[in-house]
Design a protein that fits this description.
This protein is mainly alpha-helical and about 210 residues long. Helix content is about 70%, strand content about 0%. The chain has ten helices and no strands.
Length: about 210
Amino acid sequence: MYNFENMLLKLLFTDPQIFILLSFALIISISIHEFSHAFMADKLGDSTARDMGRLTINPKAHLDPMGTLLLVFIGFGWGKPVPFNPFNLKNPKRDAALISLAGPVSNLLLATLLAFVLRVVPMGEMFSMFFYFLILYNLMLGFFNLIPLGPLDGNKIVFGFLPNKLAIQWAELQRYSMLMLIFLLLTNFTDKIIGPLVDFAIKILLG
């Protein structure tokens, strides 16, 4: 799968249609991810994201220009983090984990739904390619953000569901999480983790 990704990155500079399809797929995937964080926070009683205009799927509310460009051209980047106020949550520790979990879960659910549509609805080559890119990016974003290292969602998810004593120990370890994440990215170890998961999911969803 990641060999295919490398091929796509090369085509970005030679095929404008591929560039446009990939860019739109990426923008949609990021917007759904961030909207889901905002939606969950709002449902759990915190209106911070709503008040800041983040409770929308409009990409303008969620895209970070530099993070998006890096995602398109090198495969790693970010959207605008969705803020929330833990003091507005009934159970701040657990609810923060649920807010974090909403992002990657939404990507994985969307990939599953799109795969079903792609398999049962006849469509032309261009639409099929666009759906495939959407499925691919949503799987990548979903699995990547579940890595339990800050600032990724997986860090808060693990912290939120651990017993309090273990959660404190987990929080102390997170001072090194950014360095660990950078190391994993620089050594392409994340590809070795995420690549097989994406490959497996594609085989299950699309056959």
